[in-house]
Amino acid sequence: MVDYSTSFMEENKIRSYICTTLDEKEIRYAQDALYVLSGKWRMPVLLALHNGLRRYREIAQSIPGITFSMLSKELQIMELNNLVQRNEDPDFPKQVEYTLTPYCESLYPIVESLVNWGRAHRKAISTTSIHEV
Q: Which residues, at least 6 apart from 31, have a Cβ–Cβ distance to it below 8 Å?
């Protein structure tokens, strides 16, 4: 028979220690930031838009491996989260362009830091990690 009271008490000690050593708000803030950038395609879409690509097909062609349906889904999510603005030209029925919002532009220094860190550590990451190349 397993003594649940002991493991529960130990778990609470660990949880209590983590809560006293790490600020819960800081953890939440970091999780919020990671949520905005999470997913396989969000960063490449953000980088494509930051590099000046605005039309749907241009964005899709600049990101190897992304499907049109996945790009559409990512753009919708990014629009709902106020990261991307969708602009339709009323003169042309099918001409739609996407731009980064000022809110998203404020995120770009973090993205740029991640890109630079990845560039500097690419060799170590690719030899020690299991991930898609």
A: none
